[in-house]
Design a protein that fits this description.
Elements lengths: L22 H15 L6 E5 L6 H14 L3 E6 L7 H15 L6 H16 L30 H18 L4 E6 L6 H17 L3 E7 L3 H8 L3 H4 E5 L5 H14 L6 H11 L3 H14 L7 H24 L4 H13 L8 E2 H8 L7 H9 L3 E2 L5 E4 L4 H7 L2
Parallel strand pairs: 1-4, 1-5, 2-3, 3-4
Antiparallel strand pairs: 6-8, 7-8
Helix pairs in contact: 1-2, 3-4, 3-5, 4-5, 5-6, 10-11, 10-12, 11-12, 13-14, 13-16
Length: 397
């Protein structure tokens, strides 16, 4: 079949042609937006799940919903070595610029931007030379005395409160979207929780929508004990059979191509229902199928190509980031996880498999967690953040 017409899109954060199986999450967020618009109290939202389940795609779709309701929006991707000040300042600058044309008092917008600039400038080191001092692209004078104390918790609370006030003026809201939320530094994640807590008590129209790995709730709970009640948590998992079939069949039907039922059976078996894998196997199968309908034989012929591409781009790139000691640790995990790659294994069992004391493996384990290759959902256990990663490791020499 014509590869130019291939509808599938296996890419990082790239929206698939059919966003299947996520109607519940979209509907929940629609209710959140409507409640906030009516002045009703509502919690911020946190999406968690393994890599490849479509968290970033869903985050972008939720942002589109907010934009459709004329909210001001901004998005950042957290990094473990970066404070929230600069990215949050840039995101809220974008959000308020979206609201500014509908605001009747330009001076009110300028006042907020002055506060935002003061907040952002606190990211500079006090002893930095003038040429090394970062300047945000905000063309208004600094408004001192608000969100510029240097204490990230105080400043974030004040900044969010002022941003919410601007949104109130225009009868709408502000939504801050944060990807890889588990990578926010500890002090900043604590400040973020405090700011969300303050906003929820005030009923202010600003919400945070975060996405991260399965251990994100534990990260938030360690920062602030009340975070368990502060956010609405939604676990994003693999697609069920009906949704996976829809993700494959609906785009094909728009190109006047059909699948045989057994071909869809095999594709679900190969992909496990993980959205990224569904797109990868769908793309390879389309390119290899000579005609419609697509058959199980087409899937079998195409599967090695899809697996080779995943081995390089999805699995291999992550494996290469690990040191020899870290790779040894992951191989031991893989040997213990049998055929189910998503079941956590005990760290004591990993140590036993390697013939080492658990304490001696702590540096490798902690480094792998920091790199986002494994996570600890419960004390004393670890699991891969990438589905099917154990199976990949067992095929490597």
């Amino acid at each position: 079949m014509d590869p130019v017409r291939n509808p599938y899109a296996p890419g990082a954060g790239q929206r698939p042609p059919e966003l299947a199986g996520r109607d519940r999450e979209l509907d929940v967020f629609d209710v959140v937006l409507e409640r906030v618009a009516r002045g009703r109290p509502e919690r911020s939202l946190v999406l968690t799940g393994l890599r490849g389940v479509g968290k970033t795609v869903l985050l972008n779709s939720l942002r589109s919903q907010a934009i459709g309701r004329l909210w001001g929006t901004g998005k950042i991707e957290a990094r473990p070595d970066q404070s929230l000040r600069r990215p949050v300042a840039a995101a809220l600058h974008m959000a308020v610029r979206e609201l500014a044309p509908r605001h009747r008092a330009p001076d009110r917008i300028d006042d907020f931007l002055g506060v935002l600039k003061a907040f952002a400038l606190r990211s500079n080191q006090a002893n930095a030379k003038l040429r090394d001092r970062w300047q945000p692209g905000i063309d208004v004078p600094v408004k001192a005395g608000r969100a510029d104390s240097g204490d990230i918790e105080i400043d974030l609370v004040e900044l969010f409160t002022d941003a919410a006030a601007v949104a109130t003026d225009v009868g709408t809201g502000v939504a801050l979207f944060i990807d890889e939320m588990q990578d926010i530094p500890p002090d900043d994640i604590s400040a973020l929780c405090a700011a969300c807590h303050e906003l929820s008590q005030l009923g202010a129209p600003l919400i945070v929508v975060g996405a991260g790995l399965p251990h994100l709730p534990a990260v938030l709970s360690a920062a602030k004990s009340y975070s368990e009640r502060l956010f609405r948590y939604q676990r994003i998992d693999r697609l069920d059979r009906i949704a996976a079939d829809q993700a494959l069949a609906a785009p094909a039907e728009r190109e006047e191509v059909e699948y045989k039922a057994k071909a869809l059976d095999l594709l679900y078996e190969k992909s496990g229902g993980y959205p990224y894998f569904v797109q990868a196997y769908g793309k390879a199968t389309w390119d290899h199928a000579p005609r419609t309908p697509i058959t199980p034989d087409d899937v079998r012929v195409a599967a090695p190509e899809a697996e080779a591409e995943l081995a390089v781009g999805f699995f291999g790139s992550r494996f290469e980031r690990a040191t020899p000691a870290e790779r040894e640790y992951m191989r031991a995990m893989a040997s213990l996880s049998a055929e189910d790659m998503d079941v956590a294994v005990a760290t004591s069992e990993v140590a036993q498999a390697l013939g080492r004391k658990p304490a001696s493996l702590s540096p490798a384990r902690d480094a792998l967690i920091k790199k986002g290759l494994i996570y600890s959902g419960e004390r004393g256990t670890v699991a891969f953040t990438v589905p099917h990663f154990g199976r990949y490791l067992r095929t490597q020499p």
